[in-house]
Design a protein that fits this description.
Helix content is 38%, strand content 31%. The chain has 164 residues and is an alpha+beta fold. Strands 1-6-7-8 form a 4-stranded mixed β-sheet, with helices on both faces. α3 packs antiparallel against α4.
């Protein structure tokens, strides 16, 4: 599938815009954001009974009744990866932390209809990777040279962060 064709300058601008939006959410101390236009494939093993087509270029296919197969859904659109430093008062409150992540993600999702997924994390190791990548982008490293790193970060965030 084709990319959204995000220029490096637009990726920087959107990342800053989304970081500023996240910073405005009560409970967020600082947000760091990386935006990718890479098509995302999500795999989910479930029992399917027929071919299903979902709007917005998302298609799920299965071989027939009662078969358990890994569904591969390829989504076109922007993927936004957000690392959050949060108020100390909510760090140990899992429920409040999830609410905060959802508020940030929903605010960002409403900001641009090209977004297919928002990943939000407060895990220090992922936040460091997001920060390092954002720094490289600000320094002018082209997104095209970072595809492997972006894909790797996206895969890590799929497994270790809230997705919206």
């Amino acid at each position: 599938m084709d990319r959204v064709n995000l220029t490096d300058a637009e990726a920087k601008r959107l990342a800053q815009k989304f970081a500023n939006m996240a910073d405005e959410v009560n409970g967020v101390q600082k947000a760091t954001v990386v935006v990718s236009d890479q098509p995302e494939t999500v795999t989910d093993s479930k029992t399917r009974t027929r071919v299903t087509t979902i709007k917005n270029d998302r298609t799920i296919t299965s071989p027939g009744p009662g078969k358990t197969v890994p569904d591969r859904v390829t989504m076109r659109g922007l993927v936004v990866m957000v690392g959050l430093d949060v108020d100390r008062s909510i760090i140990n409150n899992t429920t409040e932390m999830e609410r905060l992540k959802a508020r940030v993600a929903n605010k960002i999702l409403r900001a641009d209809n090209r977004i297919s997924r928002v990943y939000v994390t407060t895990k220090p190791e992922l936040m460091k990777r997001i920060s390092n990548m954002a720094s490289d982008i600000v320094k002018g490293k082209p997104l095209s040279n970072m595809r492997n790193d972006l894909n790797n970060l996206m895969d890590k965030m799929k497994g270790e962060s809230s997705a919206f």
